[in-house]
Design goal:
The complex is a heterotrimer of chains A (294), B (360) and C (405). Helix content of chain A is 72%, strand content 2%. Chain A is mainly α and 294 residues long. Chain A has a two-stranded antiparallel ribbon. The longest helix of chain B has 34 residues. Classes of the chains: A mainly alpha (294), B mainly alpha (360), C alpha/beta (405). Chains A and C meet through helix 1 and helix 10 of A and helix 4, strand 7, helix 9 and helix 10 of C.
Chain lengths: 294, 360, 405
């Protein structure tokens, strides 16, 4: 019985990683940059919802919507000021470092505004928990909502990318920026749109992360951000179903590692599995292995 | 043709001399200022850390700039160098070994272990490419930190005892001494490093890295960076050279770790000092200073280490301003538009000067 | 694009100017950490000339993940300094206080100490976290500067004769916890959840586990988490539950404890909870936290923010007024540290114009003779090895408030 509850706990944790990884992989796949500030956008989203709902007493729906709108704008602003000027820089690493700067900036602004004390985030989910087998197995409402959101967002993203013009433009930009430009695609606009969507998704992820694990500090986003990066790589960079599967697998591995091997070595186990997977499949589970041509 | 290559040699030679000269000049100036009492305690305390970070930045530049692979686990090698050397020094503390010799041995041990780990990790890691390689190095760095955090090593008359759970598990005799205490790490490492040693180590690091770059091996490594397939087709042994660069870089990070460990009386593996945060910080030094630019790495590491310390007067706003300055410096150094603008300004200055000259 | 470049250069310039302004501040040292402006600036203006103020430096993390503890230490000390200055200072000398950020890192903590030394600090209240504190003890020993740490609980934090502390040491807490549980027969099967990457937590756990062998209870599960992995505690709780533990021992801080209590409630696990002084702050330290979850939690703590004595009440009121938060035990320890410094200065009769080393020698000798009634204990005395003699009080949370056991 404990095996099943570990599995469910793993899926709960993994669904949160997956939700963050979806936004991450989107930006990652199309703009081809590691956005180290993504985790901090998550934190900003959670703080906005916290302020709206717990401090001002507004309804959760308004709180979440406000967070999505604010993070979308924030994402676009960050892209415009910090990333866009470096898009044509001599090395792709330049923009990575600026992203780290933005990450520090967001953390420190949040620290000055909200203080270092942890906030207990009131869950925005009012779905009751699902109890099976005489209450031995307990699936929380947050888990159900997170998994459903993951599926909806994944389906939505795939539809958007495959069926709309803007989505096709994103695909084209991710394949080859120069060629896309020659085809008349507005590359800057497309990348800005990618950041907007990615950051909006980050807000949703932040709210659900803090609903499931209700502790909010200015540093809440950084570790889940790295874990989501791992999940995205696990699934194959840029692959949307890969992010979902990678995230959930990561959660399950983490919980099983803690449960059956050692709770002290949980981090080491997760990363060791990642290394093994990448050595066997060097482009992640769902990644395309591009053969280099001479 | 011969003349041309000669000229080129001279240029790199001169370039290297400037780099060495800069370090030596900085050392001499600081020594004079310190003996004149004109340097604050804060700066005096920072001298060894500055050397540590400069060595780290130079060593990572070997991987990132010369080999052309993104590594996010450099702090892991520093961690290995720090812990193995501190462990050695602690064990040897009460023996007859003179402290200078002890530190020298500790240095060799730290560099050796970090280098071996670099080799072992490099074999699987260097098969990967790009961001996948980056994340695997990050993973190794985190694994090292995690394992060091739960490592317990004790010494009694029966020899060493090792455990990955707690001190009771060590089954030590009464008078045994626990040397590595898990999260509490190693305390009481002898304070063996100083500014002179730091500068000597930095110069040695520079000597190794600059000589490697300008050697036959270094050119092979850079050929791999620029085009792996072309390099392979002219008979360059890819794996050998990649591993060479990677393990030398790791060993030098280990040297920095030794310096770090022997500057503080406590050594713990926190996310802050040996986690991915530190790896990223070193990467920031390298990128800000210019990828592949060794002198730039030193300058950038010095500026970015000093900056938050000099901003201490701002109290609560310190790290905020630091992050803004970091972003602005990155844009200023890297944005193509900024580079263009800088060149334009520089050109205008020049033309003004020449106009003036003509007028005279 | 030109506009953008202009913006950039303005930004660079303003950043530089601000940095310079910052340096200026450090140099003249008059801008303390934003405490009572009137008394402070008055005190500061004549300080440099005549040496008629005591300069106390504080160290702790005010940024980074451990910022909550460093800020508490800073704020607690600031309130004490303000009170002392308003009441006429120490032996008639005003006190200046300056706090430096160390990001809970040993190397940064040494930097912070050096910055304070440049400012002219004569006495150190810090560092806040154990690892950082150990690194600083080496430096204060070299300079023979008096150092009292409010919260550095590792054994080595007081390794030299010039180091003292206000809080309990880690082994002391582990021992006291095990003995208290055993003597009162609170539980038979105990699970421990601790932070294996934290000095404080692993230090308590080790001693607790060692002492458990002599006690009538049994440790059935010892599960860890790390600084990088502290959101999900379901496995640790599940293991405790499966092992049949009737009590869970939490030698950790309240921020993580709040999450553990929430997750245990969600999975319907309700053991007895027992914790140490790190748990203090669970009532009010986490904004918006449902305190009904803490019902029945037992902890050994020297400080309770809702105690009814005058000292605690006036401290808590002032703290809330000034910083809008309920003070935790770190703030209380730091507040006491300043009053301990005051008592030691008064006893020894040292004056600000003496050298740092003379002040230290005087205070060191006085430390074993003073008795201080503070927030974290009545009649606290110190031994020459730096440890405070005070008894931890066991409390249980009932109706959202501490109640003595």
């Amino acid at each position: 019985m404990s095996f099943i509850s570990y599995l469910i706990n793993g899926i709960s944790l993994g669904s949160v990683y997956a939700l963050i990884a979806l936004g991450y992989t989107m930006v990652y796949g199309i703009a081809k940059m590691l956005n180290f500030a993504h985790g901090d956008v998550i934190m900003v989203g959670a703080f906005i919802t916290y302020t709206m709902c717990s401090t001002m007493g507004l309804s959760p729906v308004i709180g979440v919507l406000a967070a999505v709108v604010a993070c979308t704008l924030l994402g676009m602003a960050i892209e415009k000021v910090a990333y866009k000027p470096l898009r044509k820089a001599a090395s792709p690493l330049a923009v990575l470092i600026t992203a780290i700067g933005v990450s520090y900036l967001l953390q420190n602004v949040a620290l000055l505004i909200f203080g270092a004390n942890a906030k207990a985030f009131t869950s925005v989910v009012s779905v009751p928990a699902l109890k099976l087998a005489d209450g031995q197995i307990n699936i929380t409402g947050e888990t159900i909502v997170t998994i459903l959101s993951c599926l909806v967002i994944m389906a939505g993203l795939m539809l958007f990318i495959n069926k709309t013009k803007a989505g096709q433009a994103m695909l084209a930009v991710s394949e080859d920026k120069g060629a896309a430009q020659l085809m008349g695609i507005n590359v800057d606009g497309t990348i800005a749109l990618t950041f907007a969507i990615g950051s909006g998704l980050a807000a949703v992820a932040g709210v659900l992360l803090c609903s499931a694990y209700p502790s909010l500090t200015p540093y809440t986003g950084s570790m889940p951000g790295i874990k989501a990066f791992v999940a995205a790589v696990f699934g194959g960079i840029g692959s949307i179903p890969g992010a979902l599967v990678g995230g959930i697998l990561l959660g399950i591995i983490e919980i099983f590692g803690k449960a059956y091997i050692s709770s002290q070595m949980a981090d080491a186990i997760v990363f060791a599995v990642l290394i093994v997977v990448l050595l066997v499949k060097p482009a992640g589970l769902f990644g395309k292995n591009i053969q280099e041509k001479v | 043709m011969k003349k041309l290559s000669n000229k080129k040699m001279n240029k790199t030679f001169r370039d290297n001399l400037i780099t060495y000269g800069m370090v030596i000049a900085a050392y001499v100036i600081m020594q004079i200022l310190v003996s004149a009492g004109a340097v604050s305690s804060l700066i005096q305390g920072l001298l060894v850390p500055l050397c540590t970070y400069a060595i780290l930045a130079v060593s990572l530049n070997l991987t990132v700039g010369i080999l052309g692979e993104l590594s996010l686990g450099h702090a892991g090698f520093m961690c290995i160098g720090a812990f193995t050397s501190a462990f050695f020094s602690k064990v040897m503390e009460n023996t007859a070994l003179p402290s200078g010799l002890r530190f020298f041995c500790a240095l060799l041990i730290g560099a050796l272990f970090a280098g071996i780990f670099g080799l072992l990790i490099g074999i699987p890691v260097l098969r990967l490419k790009g961001d996948y390689l980056a994340i695997v190095t990050l993973a190794f760095g985190e694994i090292i930190k995690n394992l060091v955090n739960i490592l317990f090593v004790g010494l009694d008359e029966n020899g060493f005892h090792i455990s990955f759970t707690n001190t009771m598990d060590l089954n030590m005799s009464e008078d045994g001494q626990v040397i590595i205490k898990g999260a509490q790490g190693i305390t009481g490492t002898p304070h063996d490093s100083n500014f002179t040693i730091g500068i000597v180590l930095l110069l040695v690091t520079l000597f190794i890295v600059l000589n490697l770059i300008h050697s036959r091996d270094g050119r092979a490594i850079m050929a791999i960076r620029d085009n792996t397939i072309a390099a392979e087709s002219v008979g360059i042994h890819i794996t050998k050279y990649k591993l060479m660069a990677f393990s030398i870089s790791a060993a030098l990070a280990g040297v920095a770790g030794v310096l770090y460990a022997h500057n503080l009386s406590t050594l713990t593996a926190l996310p802050k000092n040996f986690g991915y945060n530190m790896s990223i910080m070193i990467l920031v030094f390298v990128v800000l200073g210019g990828i592949g630019n060794i002198r730039g790495s030193i300058i950038a590491s010095v500026i970015l280490t000093l900056l938050p310390e000099l901003l201490r007067g701002l109290n609560d706003y310190r790290m905020l301003i630091y992050s803004i300055v970091l972003i602005v410096m990155m844009l200023f150094n890297w944005a193509p538009k900024c580079i263009e603008w800088r060149e334009k300004v520089a050109a205008r200055f020049k033309s003004k000067k020449s106009v003036k000259k003509e007028a005279e | 694009m030109k506009k953008f470049n202009k913006f950039l250069s303005v930004a660079v310039a303003s950043a530089m100017v601000m940095a310079m302004a910052g340096c200026g501040n450090t140099d003249n040292g008059s801008a303390a950490t934003g405490t009572n402006a009137a008394t402070e600036s008055a005190a500061a203006s004549d300080s440099a000339a005549s040496g008629s103020v005591f300069k106390i430096g504080g160290i702790g993390p005010t940024t980074g993940g451990a910022a909550v503890y460093g800020l508490a230490v800073q704020h607690g000390a600031e309130i004490a300094v303000e009170e002392i200055n308003a009441a006429g200072g120490i032996n008639g000398y005003q006190v200046e206080f300056k706090f430096q950020d160390d990001e809970a890192d040993a190397e940064k903590s040494v930097n912070a100490y050096n910055a304070l030394k440049d400012w002219g600090a004569q006495i150190i209240d810090g560092s806040t976290t154990s690892g950082a504190c150990i690194a600083v003890t080496d430096k204060t020993k070299e300079d023979n500067m008096f150092q009292i740490t409010p919260s550095g609980s590792a054994v080595e934090c007081v390794q030299y004769d010039n180091n003292f502390r206000v809080c309990f040491s880690d082994p002391n807490q582990g021992l006291a916890s095990a003995q208290y549980i055993g003597e009162n027969g609170l539980a038979e099967k105990i699970a421990v959840i601790y932070d294996s990457s934290d000095v404080y937590s692993s230090g308590i756990y080790e001693k607790f586990a060692k002492e458990a062998e002599n006690q009538p209870f049994e440790i059935v599960a010892a599960e860890a988490f790390t600084a990088d992995n502290k959101t999900d505690f379901s496995v640790q709780l599940q293991k405790a539950k499966d092992a049949g533990a009737d009590m869970v021992f939490l030698p950790i801080y309240y921020q993580e404890s709040a999450l553990i209590l929430t997750q245990a409630a969600a999975m319907g696990y309700a053991p007895k909870w027992f914790s140490c002084d790190g748990m203090d702050g669970i009532l009010g330290g986490v904004d918006n936290f449902d305190v009904s979850l803490t019902e029945g939690v037992m902890l050994l703590t020297p400080f309770a923010a809702d105690a009814t004595d005058d000292l605690t009440q006036s401290f808590v009121t002032k703290y809330k007024e000034k910083y809008g938060e309920t003070p935790n035990q770190f703030a209380a320890d730091s507040y006491d540290a300043i009053y301990v410094i005051k008592a030691a200065i008064e006893k020894s009769g040292v004056t600000p114009d003496m050298s740092v080393s003379d002040i230290c020698d005087g205070m060191k000798a006085a430390m074993t003779e003073i008795t201080v009634d503070g927030l974290t204990g009545n009649g606290m005395t110190w031994t020459a090895d730096g440890e405070a003699n005070k008894a931890p009080k066991a409390v249980v949370i009932e109706n959202g408030a501490y109640k003595a056991m």
